[in-house]
Amino acid sequence: MSPDPKKFTPPFAFAKDAHVGSSALADAFRETAASQPDAFWRELAKALVWKKPFTQVLDWRVPLARWFEGGQINVSENCIDKHLKNENQANKTAFIWEGEPMDPSGKNPKEVRRLSYLDLAKLVNQIASALRTAGIKKGDRVAIYMPLVPETAASMLACARIGAVHTVIFGGFSKTALADRIEDSKAKVLITADGTYRKGQWLNLKNIADEALELPQSKTIQTVFVYQRDPTQECKLKGGRDKTWKDSVLTENAKIAPESLESEDPLFILYTSGTTGKPKGLFHTQAGYLLWAHWTSRWLFDLKPTDIYWCSADFGWITGHTYVAYGPLSNGSTVFIYEGGPLYPDASRFWKMIDRHHVTCFYTSPTAIRTFMRSDPAAPKSAKKDSLRILGSVGEPINPEAWEWFHREIGNSKCPIVDTYWQTETGGVVISTFPGADTTKPGFAGKPLPGIEADVVALDTGYPVGPGQKGVVVINKPWPAMARGIWGDPLRFEKTYWNTSPALQGVYVCADFAMKDEEGDFQIEGRMDDVIKISGHRLGSAEIESALVGHSQIAEAAAVGIPDPVKGQACVAFVTPTDFALKELDDGKINVEELKNELRSHIGREIGALAKPDQIRIARALPKTRSGKIMRRLLRELAEKGKITGDTTTLEDFNPSSLDEE
Ligand code: WT7
Residues 41, 46, 50, 53: is their CA dihedral positive or negative? Predict the structure, then answer.
């Protein structure tokens, strides 16, 4: 950290109309939340439409939090029906969607679609009705494997409408990853699509879905709904199981009343990586999640009725759930979404879309920002971007250089930037500045939001560390949007988050290192566990390792993350071949490069292209402690610096020269 970071105060033009427009207001807010939590949450809960009022704000028995007990609510009613009461709002655009392909002139997109809140309501009712026809009842799970199209959000809302629990699986995941998630959630229905355009290519999602459905893990799936993104593309259908959108969803015309759901009924499961080989399904519930999605969207993006809001995340990640779908829609915003790749057909695509659709708020990842910084420096100049009034960053630490570039080149030096810190588990942002109130320092996320009692503590004692000292981020009390559990594994939930060690009993451990400065602003350093953040995507070392050792020629593997100037972190995998494969390598029967390529493809098949290691290094042995644990620390050092300098006293029989060079 630079000793004296730059400071940016909210521009007057922004602050004067902001929802939270002064530091006095922001401080008062945080103070009230801390001193009168019950009253604070009750006040916030008034923004939601309840079917039945709650009787108690919080019932907390570590690690089980029950928020707004006694209350009944429907999330889809809050995101759609609420807005239909007023004609203007009903006709307001909910989604503007732009497809990736360009028209023959190359100047304009081939397809742009606009759905009003009324259109969205119709679609959600149709999907809900189709799900009912397929036998889906309250509490049943529905898997969603879709491109970035409005139908994905509509499918999520349709589940919410009838009390089904959705689990969205990012379209970049492989057949095995999809099948594993179907198995864990025991989903009965899969909503998928023929495919999507990405980087100028047609990607056939349905083929991957079909292969997943052939695996024994997917046997719970009875019905598959297939949205046709491009009816001119070939799409195979399996009779009896597969139903096209046109012949199933679009023929429904029943109005489906939003179910009354308990505050704590599950809303969705979202799988994310941890420290074991198996992704975990975090689940979130109705009222508390919605409340936080609603308010944080409003506070941090300062949503106003005239805004055109764009968050570039896919629906397959938590950001796509909270800040593309539920948060902005519950605020009645117009949400812009884009199907394809950021550099297609060139690096000016994003900026031209901002002009074309008059985007006022743009929320993206540091990796995207760094990619743009490096691609074509003149590209941002190809658009005015003067509709923008606020910017946001999420998913990984943003380096001050990228922050300042974003501020200057994209925000025309007039837009506040919110660096929002949160996790799949937290459901919504937990640390950020208020854009109209707080002074911002590039590289610092800001302070915990009102109601979030976050701190930086020493791992061994659990006591807060002093300003400028490194510790782990914890949250001392439950908050409404926190995950309620790991699907099917309550014990793992408690041990992973709320009872990690005797010093940290009953507090939520975020597993990120950070430091707080004198002013209480948090600078997030990164994960303290074996989670690697590649381009903001979360992957577990163990997950990659387990895929590698699943290959018949690999005996042992260790995957580590090392700093990468664009992607934040890159993955380096060290592998030890089996004795037999080693011999074949020595005899020249297996070619080293071919083996590496095969391992990369293998990971692509097991997890998805996003998990393919940047480097694979073949080792005769991996460094281990006497008790047999692989020493990832040494491998990280080796991958990063090319040599090992740290303490190697516990190292057993490892010779770095036995590694191949890459
Ligand atoms: C991890 C959670 C939050 C939605 C997208 C990622 C890292 C997230 C920031 C930030 C520094 C950040 C942390 C966290 N992270 N936001 N603003 N500054 N690091 O959700 O996949 O659950 O990943 O992302 O390491 O633990 P996720």
Answer: positive
